[in-house]
Design brief:
The complex is a heterodimer of chains A (142) and B (267).
Chain A: E1 34-36, E2 40-43, E3 45-48, E4 51-54, E5 58-63, E6 69-70, H1 73-89, E7 94-95, H2 97-116, E8 121-122
Antiparallel strand pairs in A: 1-2, 2-5, 3-4, 6-8
Chain B: H1 15-18, H2 23-33, H3 42-47, H4 55-64, E1 69-70, H5 77-85, E2 107-111, H6 119-128, E3 134-138, H7 140-144, E4 167-169, H8 176-191, E5 207-211, E6 215-216, H9 229-239, H10 245-256
Parallel strand pairs in B: 1-2, 2-3, 3-4
Helix pairs in contact in B: 4-8
Classes of the chains: A alpha+beta (142), B alpha/beta (267).
Bound molecules: iron/sulfur cluster.
Iron/sulfur cluster (SF4) binds at residues 75-77, 112-113, 139-141, 146-147, 172-173 of chain B.
């Protein structure tokens, strides 16, 4: 389990506090933006001793923590390289949930491609066999 | 069988009450017709015996008899889940005690549509639950996206795209009886597990950190609308008045026949 040091959301102001303006947060200062799907977890954070520390200038990718696939080092390297490319391709765009989700879903699509070309395989020892990217098929059933 | 005795104290003038049998008579009728049994003797039977079992079995039996679900619901399916909590369907008899903290829950029944905006919250709740943990995907929305699967831009097409799902429970929404069926099937699954395999459940993190050139931006939703002038004017109008004063004032205005403008009421 990763301890995520998450900032509390922007406080709701009520009528009594409305007179004093709430202190403005610096942009992207402490809020951890994330896009989490089953195989791709993106955070605006860096990793220190296995913990995520919020850091608006870096993006951390965690690949498939639940081990639905068998990850050989070369395939994992491909995904991480693709992640770097996608992040560079979006230079200058706003850093928000939406951009992270687009990067994340592009990566999920890439992982699905790897699965369909046979470079990635489902892990039969996964805690549950969901086949969340489509049932495994043999050439006869194609 | 004792014939019902006439009521001991009857009140003259209330014929409805006079015809009612007394409590004692009701007890007699019940005792004569329900075939009463003695008190159960399970405990003394067990105390003179030796029970042989395996560690796995007794551990699983204890776990499956106390699956504590997280109180989690995002849409209409939760209404059926909430019905389950009440006395009509009585879900406590399966040992299910709803918990409001993921730290105390073994089971999350994902009841309702999950959107991409909700996804990080759901994944985080799942990560906060202690192992071993189970997931039931309840309803069409959490299995395939349901009626949102055709054209929604935000609904997640099945929570198995977010977290591992142990059991799919179809329906839109599933009846409470169907949820029981799912829980019973999950209990069978829990009963089949082995202590020796628990180590396989640990997550594996494959971190990769890169610097980026994206531009940090303020979040769009920040609660600032509550400080807007129109909002403050609306709040200020009501702030000075005690509760119920508005209604009293309006009533007074209606009774005296004066126009609402005289009473200085916000329309
Ligand atoms: S499956 Fe049907 S009842 Fe359940 S959340 Fe979706 S639309 Fe609502």
């Amino acid at each position: 389990m990763v301890a995520i040091q998450d900032a509390s959301p922007a406080p709701m102001v009520d009528a009594s506090a409305a007179a004093t303006p709430a202190p403005q947060r610096a942009a992207g200062d402490s809020t951890l933006l994330k896009s989490t799907t089953r195989h791709v977890r993106l955070f605006t954070a860096r990793v220190e001793n296995g913990d995520l520390v919020p850091d608006p200038s870096q993006l951390t990718l965690d690949v498939d923590p639940d081990n639905e696939f068998l990850w050989e080092p070369p395939v994992l390297a491909k995904v991480q390289q693709r992640f770097g490319e996608l992040v560079n391709a979006r230079a200058g765009e706003p850093l928000n949930d939406y951009t992270l989700r687009r990067i994340g879903s592009d990566l999920e699509g890439f992982i699905r491609q790897l699965l369909q070309t046979g470079e990635l395989r489902y892990n039969p020892d996964c805690r549950v066999l969901n086949y969340s990217m489509g049932l495994p098929r043999t050439p006869e059933t194609l | 069988m004792t014939p019902p005795t006439p009521p001991a104290s009857t009140t003259a003038g209330s014929p409805g009450l006079a015809e009612m049998p007394s409590i004692q008579a009701l007890k007699d009728v019940r005792a004569a017709s329900c075939g009463p049994v003695g008190s159960p003797t399970v405990t003394s039977d067990l105390s003179e015996n030796v029970i042989l079992t395996t560690l796995d079995d007794i551990h699983n039996w204890a776990r499956l008899s106390s699956l504590w679900p997280l109180l989690y619901g995002t849409a209409c399916c939760f209404i059926e889940f909430a019905a389950l909590l009440g006395s009509r369907f009585d879900f406590d008899r399966f040992g299910l005690v709803p918990r409001s903290s993921p730290r105390q829950a073994d089971l999350i029944i994902v009841a309702g549509t999950v959107t991409m905006k909700m996804a990080p919250a759901l994944v985080r709740l799942y990560e906060q639950m202690p192992e071993p943990k189970y997931v039931i995907a309840m309803g069409a929305c959490t299995i395939t996206g349901g009626m949102f699967s055709a054209d929604s831009t935000t609904a997640v097409r099945g929570v198995d795209k977010l977290i591992p799902v142990d059991l799919y429970l179809p329906g839109c929404p599933p009846r409470p009886e169907a949820i029981f069926d799912a829980v019973i099937k999950l209990r069978k699954k829990v009963g089949n597990e082995s202590l020796a395999e628990r180590g396989n459940l640990l997550p594996t993190h494959r971190y990769c950190t890169v610097p980026h050139q994206l531009v940090p931006t303020e979040p769009i939703v920040n609660g600032r609308y509550l400080r807007a002038e129109t909002q403050q004017a609306a709040l200020a109008a009501a702030a000075g008045l005690p509760l119920g004063a508005l209604e009293a004032e309006r009533d007074a205005a209606l009774n005296t026949g004066s126009s609402p403008a005289d009473a200085n009421l916000p329309s």
